[in-house]
Specification:
The chain has five helices and nine strands, in the order ββαβαβαββαβαββ. It has about 200 residues and is α/β, with parallel strands linked by helices. The chain has a seven-stranded mixed β-sheet, with helices on both faces. Helix 1 packs parallel to helix 2 and helix 4 runs parallel beside helix 5. It is globular. The protein starts with 16 loop residues before the first strand and ends with a strand. GO terms for molecular function: methyltransferase activity. It comes from Paenibacillus profundus. This is Class I SAM-dependent methyltransferase.
């Protein structure tokens, strides 16, 4: 059964939808489909992360688990002189992310299949963003944190959004172990969602 949004090839019947969203004061038009995360609109957690994230204009950015693209495409508009790599394990999501980049006129992005950061060996980033696939399990989520630490540039930052009741305490503890407690900041709390920024020093 490949019904999960973190499956490589979801078997859900296609159900394409299109809608507009305002993110960070910018208009976007998105196409989504069955078998991808939050197909009916940009989910609240992603919105909390998008509203909080600090993206330098020249940053090299990675969006892990990009889905159809709202986080990464917003980052790309903020990093006007940088570039954004968007990765996901879900082939349907990657196709949608490509389509959404094109229809929003966003050209400083590349979309690539990767399970976490596994396909990105040797690449380095200034900012890594993730609304991690909680339903895939803690081991998968914590592996994304570990890989992110290894592939951040010095002074680079990992931004995550996670629900308090879906693993925020263990996620925070894992970030403390990797980055050092003094380098992990709880940026915001909103309706049970928490956004953390972990800086590599």
């Amino acid at each position: 059964m490949n019904g999960h949004y973190y499956s490589k090839q979801p078997d859900a019947s296609h159900d394409r939808q299109q809608w507009r969203a305002m993110l960070r004061g910018m208009n976007f038009q998105f196409v989504s489909d069955a078998g991808v995360f939050s197909k009916g609109g940009v989910d609240y957690g992603s919105r909390v992360l998008i509203d909080s994230m600090d993206i330098p204009v020249r940053a090299q950015v990675l969006d892990v688990g990009c889905g159809y693209g709202p986080i990464g495409l917003t980052a790309a508009r903020l990093a006007q002189q940088g570039c954004v790599k968007m990765v996901d394990v879900n082939e349907r999501a990657l196709q949608l992310a490509q389509e959404n980049a094109a229809q929003n006129g966003i050209h400083n992005v590349t979309v690539q299949e990767s399970d976490g950061l596994a396909a990105l060996a040797g690449e380095r980033f200034d900012v890594i963003l993730t609304n991690p696939p909680i339903r895939a399990g803690k081991e998968v989520v914590h592996r994304i944190f570990e890989q992110s630490y290894e592939q951040l540039n010095e002074q680079g930052a990992l931004w995550i959004v996670i629900q308090k009741k879906q693993g925020a305490p263990s996620a925070e503890a894992k970030l403390h172990t990797l980055f050092g407690e003094e380098n992990v900041e709880l940026v915001t709390k909103d309706k049970g969602y928490r956004v953390y920024r972990a800086t590599k020093r």
